């Protein structure tokens, strides 16, 4: 019985600590704890800082996008990319609880959306980068390019030179 009471007390203590950890800093100050304000603030900032920093970074990265013109230049050359972009827009809208009509996915509607909506540009930029577009190119005069060329030469030497060419025989008529 004594052990159950101690476990109950421990559980209440832990849940109280978790509840206080979820309160905003202004709400925590009026709690009447035994810690000094400086010590409590130091612990709060140390515990919350990594999460806050990661959130800020994620928020900033969610603002990185190509311009509407850069995106349109690529998707207008490749119908398959335009279809993928429309699919991504439809999926994003569905996840946000929106129901799209056919006219919402017309090329003119997609163009307008790209020009007006940052989230759509971010979505399109990430899609195009996945397919190898809008990626930086290595300066051919840089050390990175020289290292890449060396790796490619080494890889081709590993395959070894062919002693005889591969010949493909024509099919015989029956």
Taken as a percent bin, the fraction of beta residues is: under 5%
Give the SSE string.
Answer: HHHHHHHH
Biggest beta sheet attributes: none
Q: Treating each run of at least 4 consecutive H or I residues as one helix, how many helices?
A: 8
Helix fraction? 55-70%
Number of strands: 0
Residue stretches low in confidence (pLDDT < 50, at least 5 long) are: 18-49
Shape: flat
Q: How far apart are the termini?
A: 94 Å
Task: Specify Rg, calculated over alpha carbons.
Answer: 29 Å
Structural class: mainly alpha
Oligomer: single chain
**Average of pLDDT:** 77
What does this structure look like?
- It is a single chain.
- It is built from eight helices and no strands.
- With 174 residues, it is mostly helical.
- It has a domain at 68-130.
- The N and C termini lie far apart (94 Å).
Helix/strand layout:
Elements: H1 2-22, H2 25-28, H3 37-61, H4 68-75, H5 79-95, H6 107-116, H7 118-130, H8 143-159
Labels describing this entry:
mainly alpha
In short:
This protein is an all-alpha fold and 174 residues long.
